[in-house]
Specification:
Blueprint lengths: L4 H19 L7 H33 L3 H81 L7 H36 L4
Helix pairs in contact: 1-2
Length: 194
């Protein structure tokens, strides 16, 4: 149970006075001595309270966010609010447009559906042709750079494949010569007796 500082300190002062009064022999107790003693105790208690308050303030300052963090949080909150407002306006506009345009779509649907299909096919064809054209241009550019010796991306792999093919072709040529030589050496033996 928490008590306020003032109710606790006043109770503590009364307890201190009572302790002081009963801890000394009766002849030595004076009101001035009791007041001095209570004043000293109150000062000690106030000093401890100030130290505790400083410690608490230091902990609060250590755990509190700095200005960059606060500014970042405000930026994020502003961005989220703006996005929600724009999203709400967009959704409201879409619903309103659909409500107002629904009768027009129902009346013109025999005309609009075929037009929509034609537009979709034309758009798809245009995008496909554009993609093929971009691919063709990139291949021509790569071949031009390769022929000029600029080593475009993948040129090393092409060179390695070219050397592998050339090595394989020379190996096949050597084998063909060996086989041809072997067959020619065997043919004259078979020809005289045939």
């Amino acid at each position: 149970m928490e008590q306020s500082f003032f109710s606790w300190s006043s109770g503590w002062i009364v307890e201190s006075i009572d302790r002081f009064r009963f801890s000394r022999p009766r002849g030595e107790i004076t009101w001035a001595a009791m007041a001095d003693r209570a004043t000293d105790r109150a000062r000690e208690h106030a000093g401890r309270a100030q130290e505790q308050a400083r410690g608490m303030m230091q902990k609060i300052q250590e755990r509190s966010p700095n200005s960059k963090q606060v500014l970042g949080l405000l930026t994020i909150i502003t961005g989220v609010v703006v996005a929600l407002v724009i999203g709400g306006v967009t959704l409201g506009g879409t619903v309103l447009t659909l409500l107002l345009a629904s009768p027009v779509f129902l009346l013109l649907s025999p005309v609009l559906v075929p037009i929509g299909i034609v537009i979709a096919l034309a758009t798809g064809g245009f995008l496909s042709a554009s993609a093929v054209f971009v691919g063709f241009c990139s291949v021509v550019s790569w071949l031009y750079n390769y022929a000029r010796g600029r080593h475009p991306v993948g040129a090393d792999q092409i060179d390695a494949a070219k050397h592998r093919i050339a090595d394989t072709a020379s190996h096949v040529t050597e084998k063909a010569r060996e086989v041809t030589g072997y067959l020619q050496s065997r043919v004259p033996e078979a020809a005289p007796g045939a």
